[in-house]
Amino acid sequence: MNEREIEILKAITEEFSTVLSGLKMDFAKQLEDQLKAFEEKFSSLSKSVDELKEASEPDVSALAREAAALVQVPELPAMPDIPTMVSDAVAALPAPEPAKSIMPEDVRPMLEKLVKEAVADIPAPSAPELPDIAVMVSDAIAALPAPEPAIDGEHGRDALQLEVSPFIDEEKSYPRGSYATHSGGLWRAYEKTHGMRGWECLVDGVAGIDIVNTDERNFTVTVTRASGATEIKSFSMPTLIYRGAFKSGEVYKPGDTVTWGGSMWHCDEESADKPGENGSKGWTLATKRGRDGRDKT
């Protein structure tokens, strides 16, 4: 059921409630009237009974039946035919129109109208004052500093005509774009230089190599780059060094030689073992002991 049918049913129900209320009131009034009549009859009968007290006992049951026969039963009002009323009300409803889908074409005119009205209420913006671009460009060009001449006074050189100075004179200032060799590397001036400020190292060459003998076998090599960076490497050379007679408890390095038991031994790997003994490691016999000499007589 749709909303309209529900509203009609509500109206019919309210009307039916009103009719029932009226019937109830009428029925109650009729009962009240009948009760009054019954009381009047009963009062009359009571008087007759009082008058007949001295008479023989009346048949009360018969009297009650007679009194009851005199009471008129009220007729119930005819109830309305609710199903018929609902059917008639529903039949009187107009047939609903078939549903119709709303398409974008149906809504577009309304939206266009709303948009036009909203846009019409927006105040038109005032055009800003544009700066004089030509004047600004002219002023900017006029404010540029004049370019400094190249080292040889020439202008407009291409990459093939670049000249590389053989060294950098730190007492001299070089213009931006100058190239020079320095400390074994190639340098370029990215701005006007002051001493070494303004130079950048493009090719990091080798400025120097320093070799230091730290002890009998170990050496340290320091390579200094053109940019100032350093690389340090260390290495050891197993040079033969005679350490004298073997001393117990001393650790010997590869290249050490000792005498023990009349023979010379060479240390092949770091060891504290005694040469020539069973289980001894790290030693090689270099010169075997000779036979003892005898004097001739």
Structure description:
There is one protein chain. The protein is an alpha+beta fold and 297 residues long. Among the domains are: 3-92, no CATH class; 207-236, no CATH class; 241-287, Seminal Fluid Protein  PDC-109 (Domain B) (Ribbon), CATH 2.10.10.90. Helix content is 33%, strand content 22%. Strands 1-2-3-4 form a four-stranded mixed sheet, with no helix packed on it. Strands 8-9-10-11 form a four-stranded mixed sheet, with no helix packed on it.
Q: Kindly provide the radius of gyration, computed on alpha-carbon positions and rounded to a whole number of angstroms.
A: 68 Å
Main sheet record: 4 strands, mixed
Mean pLDDT: 76
Sheet with most strands: strand arrangement: 1-2-3-4
Which class do the helix and strand fractions yield? alpha+beta
- How many individual β-strands? 11
Kindly estimate the percentage of residues that lie in beta strands according to DSSP. 15-25%
Q: Fraction of residues in helices? A: 25-40%
Tally of individual helices = 5
Give the distance, in angstroms, between the N- and C-terminal Cα atoms.
Answer: 155 Å
Coarse morphology: elongated
Low-pLDDT residue spans: 150-156
H/E topology pattern:
HHHHHEEEEEEEEEEE
Attribute tags:
11 strands, 4-stranded mixed sheet, 5 helices, elongated, Seminal Fluid Protein  PDC-109 (Domain B), alpha+beta, single chain, 297 residues
